[in-house]
Every structure is written in C-alpha cells, then in structure tokens.
Amino acid sequence: MKRFLRKLLLLPVAVLLIILAVANRHSVDVSLNPFQSGDQALTFQVPMFWLIFAAASIGIIIGGLASWSNQGRYRREARVQRKQAQKLQQESDELRTVVVAQNKSPSLPQA
C-alpha cells in the first residue's frame, strides 16, 4: 500500500518535471565572473531546466543538512536514553538470575 501511494504521489511530480523541462529547454548564458559578464573564458551555455533543477537540488540538500543539524540534540538524547535502557536491562537480567538462584524457581508466581 505504501509503495502504491508513493508511486501515486511521484507520478504527478514526474509529469510536472517533464513539462518544466520541455517548456524551458532554451539555452541561457551562465557567467561565473561577476565583474565581467562578457568574459568568454568563464561563460558557458546550458539549458534553462538544468539551472532550475540544479537550484532546486542544492536547496533540497541545504535544507536537509540544516534540518539534520538542528535535530542533533534529539539524536544525542536518544543515544543517552538507549544506553541507559541497555544498562537497566542488564541490571534487571542480573537481578533476575540472583532471584532465580535463591528461589530455584525460573518463573514468577501466577496470579
């Protein structure tokens, strides 16, 4: 079901991207020299949709990195909680073995 919904969502996005690419296939000049835009050594032509896709991809990457870095404290807290849970589980197992050894009964009494 999840796979079907993902495909159902991605299909319109793919169609929109194809329409965008077809509508913006004309070439534009990209100059990497901000002071002399006519400098042919640092100017090249690319289709407009490449620039649009590149800008969107860079924005997604930067946004993902910003979100990931902001969630660092929650990941750190989860690590601490996981270590504490493992420590408590180990302590519980040790106490259970002590009780079993004292009572010679492997299970708790049924109510």
Provide an overview of this structure.
The chain is mainly alpha-helical. It has helices spanning 2-23, 48-70, 72-103, and strands at 27-31, 43-47. The chain has one domain. The protein has three helices and two strands, in the order αββαα. Strands 1-2 form a two-stranded antiparallel sheet. It is elongated.
**Rounded Rg:** 30 Å
Strand content: 5-15%
Helix-strand string: HEEHH
State the helical fraction.
55-70%
- Main beta-sheet strand count, sense and barrel state: 2 strands, antiparallel
Distance between the termini: 43 Å
Note the overall shape: elongated
Total individual domains: 1
How many helices? The count is 3
Poorly predicted spans: none
Largest beta sheet: strand ordering: 1-2
| Structural class estimated from helices and strands | mainly alpha
Q: Give the beta-strand count.
A: 2
Mean pLDDT: 87
Features:
two-stranded antiparallel sheet, 111 residues, elongated, mainly alpha, 2 strands
Task: Quickly describe the structure.
With 111 residues, the protein is mainly alpha-helical. The chain has three helices and two strands.
Topology of helices and strands:
Layout: H1 2-23, E1 27-31, E2 43-47, H2 48-70, H3 72-103
Antiparallel strand pairs: 1-2
